[in-house]
Amino acid sequence: MAVYTQVSAERIAELLSRYDVGTLVSAKGIAEGVENSNYVLETDRSRFILTLYEKRVDADDLPFFLKLLDHLAARGQPVPPAIADKAGRQIQSVNGKPACLIVFLPGLSPGEPNVAQSRSAGAALGKLHQSLIDFADLRPNTLSLPGWHELARRCGDALEEIAPDLGKIVAEELAFLDANWPSELPRSAIHADLFPDNVLMLDDKVTGIIDFYFACTDIRAYDLAVTHAAWCFDDEGRSFDAERSAALIAGYAEQLPLSDDEREALPILARGASLRFLLTRAWDWLNTPDDALVTRKDPAAFLRRLEFYRAAGSELFAR
Ligand SMILES: Nc1ncnc2c1ncn2[C@@H]1O[C@H](COP(=O)(O)OP(=O)(O)O)[C@@H](O)[C@H]1O
Ligand SMILES: N[C@@H](CCOP(=O)(O)O)C(=O)O
């Protein structure tokens, strides 16, 4: 579960009195999620999310994330902006943590997405990128090649506790990506973590895109590769679903056409995306205490994806 910071009902009611959102009726901690503490709040007028940013979100990055959400919401994208209080402030301090009151979006995250949902997710990402073409603010991606090198170095020999030869596999992959990572593809603000649990849906329709706290400026097609790795396999990364893959890419390309260069780069970008989640999960796996509240995610699920993309080569994303 992910409620790291307990906030009393009295404190939440006091917080809400600064806003024009009605009076508190109920407040419940949300079990899902791993990064922040989230509560769902009911007032006599509506429903909201209260997010307290825990140590993984740098408070200095919050203005970037909030401006990005405002930009997307103003363009009709299904994202949850932070609400401003009566004094115009979006960021508060609650129990010593930066916190925001956020619009609640309806929908459920697909457990194992179907083909139609994968197409909708691809289309939603395409629309998101289309809406971000004129978003000028920059946030460097700390989880790109140099960040992966650093994570691999910090994990060190402990990678062998996760899988035999993992240190060697990671070193070889980093060398490959150093030599082949594209530098000329279109860049913009990207979501960078569009897993099914960050998409809310009713039937096959996307009703919400949430959790922008890895958003950054990077290669647009890399965001598509992250989404592909997240949506087109079973959870453990053992079986690839070619139909979901084709639907996701087609859904994206219908909203924002992919250039030949972007399409050609996808196999490499997908290897990078797999390595990114392999390494962040490996780091968490090695550094999360056994009695922690949060469930650790399996790094091997992304080692299997990496092996799949290495073996599949360039045919996978061919038209
Ligand atoms: N704006 C929102 N509207 C509806 N539900 C939300 C919203 N934001 C978060 N949630 C719920 O809270 C859960 C955790 O949110 P998330 O942002 O993924 O947390 P974390 O950053 O800790 O991973 C989501 O799975 C979803 O159920
Ligand atoms: N999507 C990442 C973990 C990040 O967690 P989130 O709850 O903030 O999306 C992974 O699967 O490794």
Automatic annotation (TrEMBL):
A Gene Ontology BP annotation from the UniProt entry: threonine biosynthetic process
One family name in Pfam for this protein: APH
Transmembrane segments: none
Organism superkingdom: Bacteria
Pathway(s) annotated for this protein in UniProt: Amino-acid biosynthesis; L-threonine biosynthesis; L-threonine from L-aspartate: step 4/5
EC number: 2.7.1.39
Residue intervals of the Aminoglycoside phosphotransferase domain: 27-253
Keyword tags: Amino-acid biosynthesis, ATP-binding, Kinase, Nucleotide-binding, Threonine biosynthesis, Transferase
GO-annotated molecular function: ATP binding; homoserine kinase activity
Recorded catalytic activity of this chain's protein: L-homoserine + ATP = O-phospho-L-homoserine + ADP + H(+)
PANTHER family found in the cross-reference section: AMINOGLYCOSIDE PHOSPHOTRANSFERASE DOMAIN-CONTAINING PROTEIN, AMINOGLYCOSIDE PHOSPHOTRANSFERASE DOMAIN-CONTAINING PROTEIN-RELATED
Family: Belongs to the pseudomonas-type ThrB family.
NCBIfam families linked: PRK05231.1, thrB_alt
HAMAP family: Homoser_kinase_2 (MF_00301)
Protein name: Homoserine kinase
Organism: Parasphingopyxis lamellibrachiae
